[in-house]
Amino acid sequence: MTHASQMKIAATYMRGGTSKGVFFRLNDLPEVAQTPGAARDALLLRVIGSRILMASIPTVWAAPHPAPAR
């Protein structure tokens, strides 16, 4: 079995209860993975150790403007 070479990407691993996740800042991802597409999908699947394209991988980013006051 061949393995892809390792790469270093700044990330935060958080867990609470039975949930867990790896969080990245967009600017910390390799340039090819900073836009949606096959390269980003492949990287995120590699991080969670899955080859299943239907794995739960949310993509979250900051809102372009502050939330309105309530």
TrEMBL record:
Keywords: Isomerase. The keyword Cytoplasm does not apply. It holds the Pfam family PrpF. It comes from the Bacteria. One of its GO terms (molecular function) is isomerase activity. InterPro entries: PrpF-like. The keyword Isomerase applies. Belongs to the PrpF family. This is Methylitaconate delta2-delta3-isomerase. It comes from Advenella kashmirensis (strain DSM 17095 / LMG 22695 / WT001).
